[in-house]
Design a protein that fits this description.
Blueprint (H helix, E strand, L loop, with lengths): L1 H20 L2 H22 L5 E5 L5 H13 L8 E6 L25 H12 L4 E6 L2 H4 L13 E6 L4 H11 L8 E4 L12 H12 L3 E9 L3 E9 L1
Parallel strand pairs: 1-2, 1-4, 2-3, 4-5
Antiparallel strand pairs: 5-7, 6-7
Length: 235
């Protein structure tokens, strides 16, 4: 019995070491892909039409995950979706002082636009319509709405822009095209020490205050502070 206990302790220690060695960013990104899967399965169950929008593309991995999960759950009756990616591809830039954060530095998460475009082009291969909109949101979507881009309905949107100002711009941009059932995946929702006045959470709170006719419910959480919400009612 003592020998069995020693073996069990050795195995437990090994598992703890292995799990502890796995970087939290890897865990988070894996669960972000799972969150996208949950959202598309929800859209499949609810027969939700509309485009997929992503704010903060980086190197295109999440856009590929969205396409793969749409393809997995698609039926002949499912309306064809267009996939949209919005990103500066130049990394963070502080347009507002309130967005400053000790971890998010200006220039962080920059990526090569041409390489990302070619990666997506190779993956989509004409199997779906897709667009990349390059530029800071303050320059590309401010004072515009999804309708100006021909986006009439949104099924799922991922806000992975981390900072509050661009997140609020993205939410306001989407407002006219949100429909009951739209799933919003909000990454880094608990950044800024959990504040509901700053970051993505602050933007979402302000957006709901300014759009009281839009009623959201929490649908799921994932990773290290990611949240999924569904638009339950548009009064």
């Amino acid at each position: 019995m003592l020998e069995l206990a020693k073996r069990s302790h050795w195995l437990q220690t090994l598992v703890v070491k292995w799990v502890s060695a796995l970087h939290p960013a890897i865990e988070h990104n894996v669960q972000k892909t799972q969150a996208i899967k949950k959202a598309f399965y929800f859209a499949f169950l609810e027969q939700l039409a509309g485009d997929y929008l992503e704010f903060g593309v980086f190197e295109g991995t999440s856009l590929i995950a969205a396409f793969e999960n749409d393809r997995r759950f698609r039926t002949p009756e499912t309306p064809r979706r267009t996939f949209w990616g919005f990103d500066s591809f130049e990394g963070f830039k502080y347009f507002a002082a309130r967005d400053r954060h000790p971890f998010f530095k200006e220039g962080d998460f920059a990526s090569n636009y041409e390489q990302t475009r070619q990666r997506l082009e190779q993956h989509f291969k004409g199997r779906a319509d897709w667009h990349l909109v390059k530029g800071y949101f303050e320059e590309t979507i401010q004072a515009k709405t999804a309708l100006d881009f021909g986006i009439k309905q949104i099924s799922i949107a991922l806000l992975d822009c981390d900072l509050g100002t661009p997140a609020l711009l993205a939410l306001n941009f989407m407002a006219p095209a949100l429909q009951p059932g739209t799933v919003l995946i909000l990454d880094d929702y608990f950044a800024y020490r959990g504040s509901q006045k700053e970051g993505v959470a602050g933007a979402f709170c302000q957006f709901q205050t300014e759009h009281p006719h839009l009623k959201f419910r929490r649908l799921f959480d994932y990773g290290h502070g990611g949240q999924g919400f569904v638009l339950a009612d548009r009064a």
